[in-house]
Here is the input.
Amino acid sequence: MMEISCSNCGRTYPPDGLPYRCPTCGGLYDFNTPLPFDPAQVDWSQPGIWRYRHTFGLSPDSDPVSLGEGSTPLLWAEVFGRKVAFKCEFLNPSGSFKDRGSAVITAWLQSRGINEAVEDSSGNAGASFAAYAARVGIKARVFVPESASGPKRRQIEAYGAELVPVPGSRTDVSEAARAVADGGTVYASHAYLPFNLPGYATAAYEIFEQLGNKMPGSVILPAGQGGLLLGLVRGFDAMRIANNSSNSNPRIIGVQARACAPLWAMFPAGSTEAGLVAENRTLAEGVRVRYPLRGDAVLQAVVASHGSMCVADENEILPGRDALARIGFYVEPTYVEPTSAIVWSALAHTIQDLPGPVVIILTGSGYKYE
Here is the structure.
């Protein structure tokens, strides 16, 4: 099995329970070796992401948890004078890329006999966790900002989860969930726990396959906590190692909303004071994260790829969504949400300098936005 340990003190993840952080030092847990992708172990008889289950770190006798996540299309379009590919993660079962991570986290919960857990979210992660918890009969309680969009809140409740609206900022929501977790309830956090990262990495394996077993030259995607970005980088790295390739990983362009852009502010040549970053309201609510927990690892991955962090101004977000609609990504109810649309601004500003093939990740569905 892959080993998980505290990234601060090095203590190994315990064999029982599901602590969200190291009980000794409070550090984050993470996998301490590269993802063990092996083409010979890909099980093509399994659906979606579960063909790659050998990379998830689960015990062999753990049951998969699935709603049909993964295997999302890669669609091509000509924009700004170049052909680029769009990875349509908004077509996952609950409407976002979060399903790749939720499937794996829920399998971990199930394998350890856990029947109740809490999560906090701006909406997509909470809806995704609620769906997968319902799938296996886990009682879910999801903390969300009072300002979270109505469809996301209704979706969470429709799956049978208890919805807990919290006044204040997105940070306040996380603090409320942690308070409950520190009282003894399992915290199935998509930000603290590392189990979602191998799930997100499956999107990298799919992109590689969809490009004819080739690496993309560049990838542009929204980044809040940066978990998807980190998972993709690890996935591409695992593919490169498995194929014994000397080719470099793709250039990574992470995108944030200027209203709350700590990763952009901390990127080389920017500010080094994350505490000075504001947590203002933004249409791109899915990336409104003031303190990304794995921020250092995310930025190291971007720098190593010779990539960059970009920001979208608030007045660019809806025009970006509309521009995506005009190339077809607006088919009711599967148009993209504003958080996905921030990639358009970054694409406009970077496209001429990006090595190809260029892949854009469209992370969430617009049916959740109102």
Observations:
- DSSP finds ten helices and twelve strands in the chain.
- Residues 227-242 form the longest helix (16 residues).
